[in-house]
Amino acid sequence: MFGSAYNPNDACCLLLIALGLLMTQLSRPTKHPLTRWPLINWAAAGLLCIGIYQTKSRTGLVLMIALLIVTAYQIFHRHRILITGLLAVGCVTLWEVFPRSASTWTALQSRITIWQNSFDVFKQAPVLGVTYFGFARRYFQMTGTYVPHAHDIFLMLLASFGILGGVGFITLVISSGWHLTKYWHQYRQPNLRYFMMTVPIILAYGLTDFVLSSMQVLIIILLIIAYWRHEQQATPRYAPTIR
Prior knowledge:
Helices cover 72% and strands 0% of the residues. It is mainly alpha-helical. Helix 1 (8-27) packs antiparallel against helix 2. The radius of gyration is 20 Å and the shape is globular. The termini are far apart.
């Protein structure tokens, strides 16, 4: 996380990725659930949750809650009705501790304005885009306000690289998701659970912020994708289907 602390959104994304990997580990079945290592892992998960809350990222907090809910359903699958009831009660008081709750609507309106202007930047060069480094300059020329990126991964790629880059990225996401689902249903590799937990976090966080602008986040994402490619190549070509 060194080098990302200047931007709480980048730090929050890294913390979410770490929490997602840890939640995947904790949700895996084990014969000794009360050994010291799971307890240490749960303590680490608590520290990560505190760190995510301290970044004051509303998107990060929502994704953190979603991660905890998914993990709770996986671990306590026999008590989902009870968990659902507890979550419903907890959501009533959650808003009281939600960071910057008073400015949520104002922040949303600001993001919508940035998204609309970013789409207008895309329309200036729809085929090849205005390039990543030219986005801020074009945005400033059009609005008189400096905004470094579109605060949305899809809009930023469309504005920076045009239809070729944006559609190519969307195609890559859909294709990778389809292959991941296919591999999961056919081979049930335990290590694929890590990829299935972290990639949705990155895409979901990217809906409100372009975290790929951070080199620290980008390196981690590239490592995760490289690991996914390694898992694909390590999978037997004619492995039996498990139902």
